[in-house]
Structure formats: structure tokens, C-alpha cells
Write a structure and sequence with these properties.
The chain starts with a helix and ends with a helix. The protein is built from 11 helices and no strands. It is 62% helix and 0% strand. With 234 residues, the protein is mainly α.
Length: 234
């Protein structure tokens, strides 16, 4: 009997103590000093790269030139059931300057918009460079690659595709903007699809070995810097 009384008293005493601890803890959570938030992983890094090594400036030049068109657009030619070799050749011959610019772009070390290289200058109204002409020259070079493949110039077809994939990879891996990433991913995707065509059709064993060596398990990667520009401007 005494044991039950002691247990009862213990419970009666313990309840207010436990309630006090809970209330005090809640009070400290909402009124105490908040721990400093470590947002290091959410911040953009400052990138130092010379203009001559930055593919961004090749894109600026590309956006300034005029593209020549054929009776069918590049999109129509790509989507056609059969490749119109005559129109395709006319298209890439007339746009050789743009194709050379894409080659220069792919050969640069890095791509980053200057405003993304220095996060302190980033503003909500910062200018976004358009990728419309980059998409167009990509379609033209993919058409050229398919033309070269049909003409049994497998190595040239491969070099054209490699230029597209390399350029796309620079964009998709660039620090910052979602729009830049999506253009890069679309370039990588169409490049890899065309690469599959080459692997299926080519009888050049040396070339096929190089492709498997250069692209053993190539995958389009998720860019971990996406949306960090939005966080910087909060």
C-alpha cells in the first residue's frame, strides 16, 4: 500500500516537472537566439576566367549574325521522314560562318555569363543572353552530320556531333541560370541521338572504338548551381 502511495506521489510530482521542461523548451525555441544559418552551399561562387577563354563571347558574336534559310526550315528538315540532301547541303553551305562560330564556342575552356561570374553584380533585371540562334546553328550542324553520314563520311559526321555535345555540355554545366542549362541539355540530347545513328550505321571500326572510348557512359548531369541565382537575389 505504501509502495502505491509513493508511486502516486512520484507521478504527481513528475507531471509538473515534465510540463515545465516542455514549456521551457518551446519558449527557448521561439524566443531564444536562432542559430546562424549556414547557406554556403546555396551561394554562387566567384569565377575568374579571361574573355578569350570564355565561350560566352562567341555566343554574343553568333547572336549578331544573320542566318540564311532554305525552302524548308531546319526544324522541318530534321523532322522529315527522308533527309533532303540537296536542301541540307544548301543550308549548311550558306551558314558556314555560324558553324565556324559554334566550333570556336566548343573549343573554349569554359562558358559563363559575366554577371553570373560575379554574384555581387547579379540583379533581378540582369540581362539574359538568348539561346535562340544557338539552337538554330545546332540544328544545322546536326543536319550536316546526318548529311555526312549518308555520304559515307562517318568521321566528319562524328566530329560535327562531338562539337554539338561538347558545346551543350559547357552550357549545361555552367553556373547559374535554368534557361542556359535547358539549352545545353537540348543540345546534348540531340547530339547523343545523332551519335546513336552513327554507331548504328558506321562500319568504321576505328571510329567506333574512338566513340566508345570518348563516350563510354556519357550521361546528362543535373547542374547543382541551378536556382542559386534566385537565392542570391533574395
Amino acid at each position: 500500500m505504501k509502495k502505491k502511495i509513493l508511486i502516486g506521489l512520484g507521478v504527481i510530482i513528475a507531471i509538473p516537472v515534465v510540463l515545465f521542461i516542455i514549456v521551457y523548451g518551446i519558449h527557448k525555441i521561439f524566443t531564444g537566439d536562432l542559430a546562424e544559418v549556414n547557406d554556403k552551399d546555396l551561394l554562387l561562387e566567384t569565377v575568374n576566367i579571361s574573355d578569350k577563354d570564355n565561350a560566352y563571347f562567341d555566343l554574343v558574336k553568333l547572336n549578331e549574325i544573320k542566318f540564311y534559310e532554305t525552302a524548308s526550315s531546319s526544324t522541318e528538315l530534321l523532322e522529315a521522314k527522308n533527309l533532303d540532301l540537296k536542301q541540307v547541303k544548301e543550308l549548311f553551305d550558306k551558314n558556314s560562318e555560324a558553324l565556324k562560330m559554334l566550333e570556336d564556342f566548343s573549343n573554349k575552356i569554359f562558358f559563363i555569363e559575366p554577371v553570373m561570374a560575379d554574384p555581387s553584380k547579379l540583379r533581378a533585371d540582369s540581362e539574359i543572353i538568348t539561346g535562340t540562334k544557338l539552337r538554330e546553328v545546332t540544328r544545322i550542324l546536326i543536319l550536316k552530320s546526318r548529311y555526312e553520314l549518308e555520304s559515307k563520311h562517318d568521321t566528319t559526321a562524328y566530329e560535327d556531333v562531338k562539337t554539338v555535345i561538347s558545346s551543350g555540355h559547357k552550357l549545361s554545366g555552367s553556373q547559374g541560370r535554368l534557361t542556359t542549362y535547358l539549352v545545353g541539355v537540348s543540345m546534348e540530347k540531340i547530339g547523343l541521338e545523332t551519335l546513336d545513328r552513327i554507331v548504328e550505321k558506321s562500319k568504321n571500326n576505328k571510329l567506333l572504338s574512338e566513340i566508345h572510348l570518348y563516350f563510354p557512359n556519357f550521361e546528362i548531369e543535373i547542374n547543382k548551381t541551378l536556382f542559386k541565382d534566385d537565392y542570391v537575389m533574395l
